[in-house]
Design brief:
- The chain is built from 9 helices and no strands.
- With 203 residues, it is mostly helical.
- Helix 1 crosses helix 2 and helix 7 crosses helix 8.
- The longest helix is centred in the middle third of the chain and has 27 residues.
- The termini are far apart.
- InterPro entries: BetI_C, DNA-bd_HTH_TetR-type_CS, Homeodomain-like_sf, HTH-type_TetR-like_transc_reg, HTH_TetR, Tet_transcr_reg_TetR-rel_C_sf.
- Keywords: DNA-binding, Repressor, Transcription, Transcription regulation.
Length: 203
């Protein structure tokens, strides 16, 4: 019997993940059953379980594709030359989140994953690891701002990294539930905060 190619295996894996993502967005992660995923993918239970041992593995795989892309985008902005000022940085990340949060947008799943992480140890461990990774990227970016003299002297880089990370979930929740916030609001808000908190500081 001929061996199945790596390309075929990857296509099948992607097929399952796409089906699961569609079900998660349509029904919610908690309400989606493995039977729903079998039906959506058009594959048998045996075929799906060949690639994923459990629903949790599928959740993690789907989330990984979204988080990895978003983290890569943030990291690229955080390390680019010339260094982006803070207000422009958050606006660009906001635009990226908007592009991923449409009717079928994958980041719509993020709040559901956060909720599951509160009581599911496996998902909780995965979510925490990813939060730490993205937050670390924000902190490194804050360090570049400080080194470039774009933050007031003595600014706490780690604390700023935590605050910058926290903007993104807040922006996403407002975008999904209220739909009255835009990336430009992030930029104006950051700009106003900097001016009001340090009126005598000139970068």
């Amino acid at each position: 019997m001929p061996r199945v190619s790596e390309e075929h295996l990857e296509r099948r894996r992607t097929q399952i993940m796409d089906a699961a993502r569609a079900c998660f967005i349509r029904k919610g992660i908690h309400e989606t059953s493995m039977q729903d995923i079998f039906a959506e993918s058009g594959l048998s239970a045996g075929a799906v379980y060949r690639y994923f041992k459990s629903k949790n593995e599928i959740i993690e795989a789907v989330a990984t594709t979204v988080i990895a892309d978003l983290h890569e985008f943030i990291a690229a902005l955080a390390t680019q030359e010339p260094l982006l000022p803070l207000d422009e940085m958050v606006e660009r990340v906001g635009h990226k989140i908007v592009s991923l949060s449409g009717e079928d947008g994958p980041v719509r799943l993020a709040p559901q994953a956060w909720a599951l992480s509160l009581y599911d140890p496996d998902i909780g461990r995965y979510v925490r690891e990813n939060i730490m990774g993205i937050r670390g990227t924000w902190a490194a970016y804050a360090g570049r701002l400080a080194d470039a003299g774009l933050l007031p002297p003595g600014s706490d880089r780690e604390a700023l990294g935590k605050v910058l990370f926290s903007l993104m979930p807040g922006f996403l929740i407002q975008r999904l539930l209220l739909d009255d916030i835009a990336p430009e609001d992030l930029r104006r808000g950051i700009h106003s905060l900097i001016r009001s908190s340090t009126p005598d500081f000139t970068p």
